[in-house]
Structures are given as structure tokens and as C-alpha cells.
Design goal:
Sel1_AlgK; Sel1 repeat family protein; mainly alpha; TPR-like_helical_dom_sf; Sel1-like
Length: 559
Amino acid sequence: MDQDETQTIRKFGEDLVAAALAGDAKTARGFTDYFVFGHHIDEGIPYWERAVEAGDAFSAFTLARYRKIRGDRAEAERLYRLAADRDAGCAYGLGVLLQEDDDPEAARWFQEGWDMGRLDCKIELGKLLAAEGKPAEAAAFLMQDTGLGDIAVFRWVQLFEGVRETFDGIAAALDAAEAAGDGEAAVAAVEPLEDMNGEFKNYPGLAIEAGEYLRRAAALSPVALVEHAILLERLPGDRWPEVRDLLLRSHEAGYAGAAFVLGLFNEERGELAEAERWYTTAAEAGHRAGRRKLADLCLRQRRFDEAEASLGLLDPDDDDIADRLALLASLREDGEPSPEEDLRRLPELRERAEAGDVRASFEYGRLLYDWGGGTARWAVRWYEPAARAGDAEAAAGLSRLYEELGDPSRRDRWKRVAAEAGDLDACYSMAWLSEHHHDYQEAERWFVRAAADGSALHAMMAGKALAQRGAYEEAEPYLRKAWEEGRDEAFGTETAGYLGLVLNRTGRHEEAVELLTLAAATWREDVRSRYSSDDLQMLSRMLRPEEELEAAEQALAAG
């Protein structure tokens, strides 16, 4: 950063604070925009802190946003609360932060924000109504006082009205099935619920009404008991006693599929002995999927003779069975598995985990998740103790579980824990997260940390970030490494461009021309095509190799 820019930053920062002290919110916001859109977040923070003390709401909102992006959620909450009762942006930011923590207080702040006219607060309130199981009320609320410019609400109105229409259609079909005493028709009536997993996950209250329809169908068919159990098992929280009871009732009523689902849910939870018992029950009743799952379970436990016996009872011309038999033969030849794949370790690991060994808890959960058929949802509790104790590997694994579960807030929080504990892949992910939020200074720090793993790709990204800031001498070693080790990789063209930029800006024009010529030839197809056209800030920072090549050639000619 040159002296003129440093002086400008100081002047605009002091002007920001002066405007805040004078209560001139419009002027203060203008100076805040200079820091944000100029990517001077580090430099803006001390001025925003002073402006917040002077009572400026937009400075509180901006500083809270970057505190949250950089991982200090407690400070972000404090800053949002300073102005949430008088600033719609802070009310919305506080509502979102609290909602990510499953705090019901979020609703209060969305209401505050909507009272101040913020449309996205209204949308969140509508979604909360739907989450309580009131889709029609949610749609009606969102349509209240809607203007032509409020197009954002119509997506949600359409969704919630669609849910209401689906439920009404199910109710009508069930009426007809009950009148005819037709169990098959009752099961068919509730089939649309199978396509609503996303709605039930995001708006759990909808499951209350869905459950009533399933209870009605279950009075005519034990198949509906299983469908009800599946619905409950996929909801947030743990409803296992009720789920198990529904499945047992269906099994006792003679539906073979219930035993299979009992096996599946026990396997997902890591209860492999119970899973095997129910898969065996299903297989003995002639359930093909149950026999296949039983074979898979024996195969993963390296009980090869039992797996082969189960597979032998299935159609040998089935491609899935042929693949399993080939895998069985391969595993027999491989000998003993690695500890990370050996399910025979599970009892010992669980005993240690339940005795308080947090590393054993993580290893137990990972073994179940990777090889035992366990799901991310039920693996979380085994990963968490080690992750909370600062184990980088466990924290990174927990982040991946939350990614699979569709929980981006917890995914990113645990990714940060892993990165701060030294996981370099997590550092790289944090860099991209910071770039997504256009916090390029923070992104640069994470890219540089990630490059410590020796990866040519990570070196390229660190060098690129440094070069975009104008730190050309710092960037060169990273970009040289990336070019020497990764010129033939997918990022080779981008590396050539940024190394050419660095060399040109540090006076080595001849070498720069060679690299920039290579980059310019395929930049559009190799580099530009991989980045979104909607990210105007990213595009404004991107190298234009043709222009840099022209400048390098002119410098050579002049020299």
C-alpha cells in the first residue's frame, strides 16, 4: 500500500468517525462503503469500532458482519444487539445468527426488522409460520401488503401454497380410501409425502399434519406404519422409541418390509448387531433387499463365507450381485484390513469411548460412518468430543458431516476450528469462504497458511492472492513453485498469468512476456470460464493477461 492510499484511508476513516459523532448516518455509510468496496477491511475495523461507540448503526451492522465472517460470533451478536431495535439490518443479522443457533429469540428480531420494513425479515417470519405447520397462514402472511417490487416473496408463497394443495389432495384421497376400506388406496393416498423430505426437514411442523394422514392410512394397511416411521426418523431430533414402536407394529401385522427398515435404521445408528438380526428376519421372509443388506454387512465385517452364502441365494445375473461377488473375492485376497477399515475394532473402541476417551470416540464414529453403514446424523455425537477438545482431524470430519447434513453454519464453524488447529485443507476451505464474502485480506491469510502443505495448487492460490494485493515480491516464490510443479495441471494457465504479472511488475519483462503470452492464448477457456459471471467483484480483481502482456512488451521496447 503506497503512501497516498494510506493517507486516503486515514482521512476517510476519520471522516467516518466524525460523521458518526455528528449523527450523519448517510455520510458515515458512504465512508463505510469506501472501506468495504475497496477491500480495506483490516483498515476499516478500528474506524468502525470508533463509529459504533458514537452510535452509528450501519457501522455496527458492518463490523458485526465481518466479526461473524472471521469467526467471532459472540462479538457479532453483541454488535448486532447494539442497534437491532432501531436498525433493520442489525435486526435481520441478529435474527439470522440466533436462528443458526436454534434460538427461538430469532423470531422476535425478524419481527422487529419487518416492523422497520425489511422484506427478508418478512420472508423469515413466513418460513417460521410454515415451520410451525401452518403453510396456508405462511402464504397468506407473505402476500399481505405485497407490492410489485416484492418478487422475492412469491417463491415462498408458491412453495407453501403447494404444500397446502398436496395435503388437501392427500386428505381427499384418504377419505375415499376409508370409505371403501381399501388399504392399497390408503397407501397410495399418502405417497406424495415421500417427495417432501426437504419440506419436512426445513419446516418440521408440517410433519404433524402429515403424521395424522399416515395414522389414518395405517388403520387400513401396515405399510403406512412403516411410512410413518420413516417420516419421523428423518425429522430433526431423536424419536427412536416411537419409530421403533411403529415398525414393530407393522412387523407384527405381517409386513416383511418393516424388518428391513428396522435393520436399515439400526445400521444407520451404528447398532450393527440389531441391524443384522432384522436383516436376517427380512431375508428369511424372502425380502431381497434384506438379504442383500445382510450380505453387505457380513462383507464389511469380513465374514466372507456368510456373505457368500447370502449372495448365493440371489440372482447371479444381477449386476449388483456380480459386483459384490467380485468385491468379496478381492477382499479375500487382500488379507487383513487396515485399522481404519476393520469393523472388528468397534466393541473395543466403543468401550473406550464410553469411558471418556475422546479420540476413541472419534475413531469409533469414523469407522461406523466410513465402513459400518452409519450415517452423518448419528455419527456427529461420536465426533464431537474430540472436535471440542481441539482435535483438528475430528473437527474437519465433523465439518464434513454437517456439510452432508445440509447445515452450512455448523459446517463452517467446525471448518474454522479445524483450520485454527492446523488442518491445512481446512485452511484452504476457509480461504474460499472468506473470498465468497469478499473478505480478501482474510482469504489471503488463509491461502498462505494452506500453502504450507507444499501443494502446487495451494501455492498458486496464495501467490495469486498476494499478487492481487500488489505484494509482488512475496507472491513470486509461491507462483514459481506452482509453475514448476503444476504447469501441466488445470491451474497452469492461471499460474502462468499471475507469475507473468509478478515478473512484469518487478522489472523482468522478457520472462514475463513468455508467460503472459502462454496465459493470454487460453485464458478465456482455461480460467475465465471457471468463474461466475455474476461475481463482479471477483471479475474486477482478475488479471487481464492481454493488457499485462501489452504493458510488458511496451516496457521491453522502451528499454
